[in-house]
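Researcher: I'm preparing a figure for a lab meeting and need a structural model of a single chain. I don't have an experimental structure, so a prediction will have to do for now. The sequence is pasted below. Please return the structure as tokens so I can convert it later.
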Amino acid sequence: MSKKVLILAGDAVEALEIYYPYFRCLEEGFETTIAASSPKKLHTVVHDFIGWETYTEKEGYLIEATASFEAINPEEYDGLIIPGGRAPEFMRLNEHVPAIVSHFFEADKPIAAVCHAAQVLTTVREHMKGRELTAYIACKPEVEALGSTYVSEPNHVDGNLISGHAWPDLPGLMKEFVKQVNGVGVEA
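Model: Understood. Here is the structure written out token by token.
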């Protein structure tokens, strides 16, 4: 039986942060579901680092969300991916998202969180106290407000929580995520 992975997304999700993990999961043979507030074509954005104090943003590709957050039974999935972009600031307001994310912490299933995904983790404070993670530097205040330790490295593994700073760090993030979904082991 193939493994199942859930990706939480919404409009303004960062294009590389959803496409790279999605295609990597398909390549691995994982049955992969993209869920959003409703099933629809999502608008992605492209963030780039060109010497400004922050990233720039342009319109990206469309990608299909085939399920709603409300319809998701997290017990059916072996791993969770939360991409960044601006989508997390809105996804975290959905009443179903905290229960979905909490399940993966409670069941000790792999969670990949990249860039602004830390904003979604603010909805599950009870699982974040004392954890270590990295995120886009602008999310450092959210990480610390959770009672977590912000780690200044491109990728960080804290048990089942695999975090990445931004899209350039996806190869390392996805390598560890795939390893954990396949049950190869968890780094300390």
